[in-house]
Design brief:
Length: 876
Amino acid sequence: MISKTYNPKDIEEKWYQYWLENRYFHSTPDDREPYTIVIPPPNVTGVLHMGHMLNNTIQDILIRKARMEGKNACWVPGTDHASIATETKVVNLLKEQGIDKRDIGREKFLEHAWEWTHKYGGIILKQLKKLGASCDWERERFTMEPALSDAVIDTFVDLYNKGKIYRGVRMVNWDPQGRTAVSDEEVIMKEIQQKLVYIQYPIQGEEGQFVTIATVRPETIMADSAICVNPNDERYKHLHGKKALIPLINRAIPIITDEYVTMDFGTGCLKVTPAHDPNDYELGIKHNLPVIDILSDDGTLNEKAQILVGVDRFAARKAIIKELEEKGYLAKTEEYKSNVGYSERTNAVIEPKLSLQWFLKMADIAKPALENVMNDTIQLHPAKFKNMYRSWMEAPHDWCISRQLWWGHQIPAFYMQDGRIIVAHNKREALRIARDKYQLFALSEADLTQDEDVLDTWFSSWLWPMSVFIPGKDSENPKAGPGDLDYYYPTNDLVTGFDIIFFWVARMIMAGYEFKGEAPFRNVYFTGMVRDKLGRKMSKQLGNSPDPIDLIEQFGADGVRTGMLFSSPAGNDLLFDEKLVEQGRNFCNKIWNAFRLVKGWQITENTSANNELAIRWFDAKFNQTVADLQSHFSKYRMSDALQTVYKLIWDDFCSQYLEMIKPGYEQPIDRQTYEATIQFFERLMCLAHPFMPFITEEIWQEIRERQSGDTICLATYPQAGSVDSSLLADFELLFDIATSIRNIRNSKQISPKTELPLAIKTENAARFQPFESLIRKMATVSEISYVSEKASGVSFVIKSDEFFVNIVGEIDVEQERANIQKELEYIQGFLLSVQKKLSNERFVQNAKPDVVEKERQKVTDAEAKIKSLEASLAAL
């Protein structure tokens, strides 16, 4: 018994378990063409948000379609260990228990981190199952599992031995809260209101003379190494070669010249602080200036600051402004907006900081990655992102790959007591290298100390398309087989956000060419950002992001999936409105009601030729739509693909086809029409299945008897057949006629049940005689006659001058004449006013061309309307 209403809760869990139990999502290499997607691994700390929902829906659409096309579809799931995010979570958890990580040491801390990961990690993957994600869950990977960790260490050793990894002091982005370096891509720039502080630096040896510097960072004046002016600035030429005194600490610094300084910005004087600004650092190298780092790793002032030692940088800023004012060094302050970098993970303000770190040389490794995106070996969708990609990849900075954390892959560098470094897979191998290379045979493992730092999380995820196919360490439950990498790599499509195009997408491409000699994937589909209907980025802080699981509970997974996709063209932001998922749910209800209608029909063995044309039309329409759909998929237009399926089911099948073939009340339908309709329904469900997996499986299973183990997941995806274009054109005209007659009824307040006579010009008789029964049914027409010219009486032109509907006796003729005359007079007056405007030469000469063209179009439209109204009057 088919339920009256569609209830997603009744079927979603049932069918997902059915799919898992039958292992429909599992893939092993065979002789079929592979189709592979690797999931962008979400942080192990993460939970499902709207961006994940969109991203994984698109991946599922691609993988389900490929599976139905007979390809060996493999979608690999997994999570990223997320060094900073996870360590922050565990540190905060320990703090709540009164435990400091440094008190318990690295080994004990990692025990807590693993305990947290096993207990709370991977929630997001469980949530993806509710969305219907058809991942091969038997292949689930984690970037910290043994096999993947070994791959990361192997990669580091390989690159170091090639001379591509080095250790050195460079300016980095420092997160004082996480106490680690972070990459440029993990710094979020925010425009904030600050105070621009004008400070007077006394000139050494010249009483009462000073130079004024404007800065938003007065807490760094103690780290100043020089004051710089433009050599061409006449205001300061008398200061060249002299020295100024830093206020509050009276340390003398030189006044130097460099054309780097902009004369018309601020006061034209620049305080040079090499330790705390990347541009100042470059200027300091050029002029051989000392580097004075006054900030500790936690963002407090250290002993080199001389004052306010141990005070937080922002508290020190306020204290220094106050002291500068008290001692007469403060000229003025102004409100000033500027961009400030924040850590993506901890939201702490980033400090530029000189730090001893490990780096990967990027110049050579980036070349093939740039070339093969520019020549479309790897295609970006939409292609507009090629420019962004090129701008980043033409001159990439060396990658700072070390992080001052404990959770992650510990850098495989071992230090001897004299400071020499040995890079090896483990301490045992390092000892062997030390003995072989330096003949230090008395050396033991105890004499070697491993680097405390871990590798940047992205140093593991850049290997993801390769590392997920490395066999696991667990022989009883291997995550991959020995030949999997050769079979599944390169993968086919990557679906991700454009915000990580450089520090994940580009790096995976680099790794692919460096280690496999080919691209890791063929296409990259960029999703946009999910925003609220006001255009704001969704966030917990704003409270404008719905919980995806709550949406699934309320609207069903299929409703949410389709709702998300209704307005999400590639690379463009999606303005999310709950009405979208309501539309998705309504689509499910429409399909369900159509299913109930068809399955509720009684069948007669009598044959009927009346529905043959409708069957032929929908078959042609279906084939035409499948061709359009394949075109959309080939161009990665997922939203357009869904809209195409939506229109085919809602408009063409439900609103047109079913209305044409639907039997009268309590009347049976002939078996031939019924079987054709069931086949259409099955094929429609196959087209819709990648978008709406649950309801399509339910209907596919119920629409006819299936064998045990059957599933729509493995049904054949429909292919386009021949299209009868002339038949489609005839039906479009038929639908226009029916719509026009309905509109006449509505405008003239004639009951929809009232049958009206239709006249067709004689020259169209042969074409439309086969459609007479359909016209009568769809347009509620009493009779159809063929005439040489328009008949007298009250009738309306429907299409060109070829079709007329007579409404004699259905309207008040005098009232109709008065209404038309009134409208005619209004349009004639409007036409005169527009013509008068266009006859004004000054208007035509001075107005914009598009404005003039719009006025001319108004004339054309008004003249056409007047002609139509005059014809209507003539008919009365």
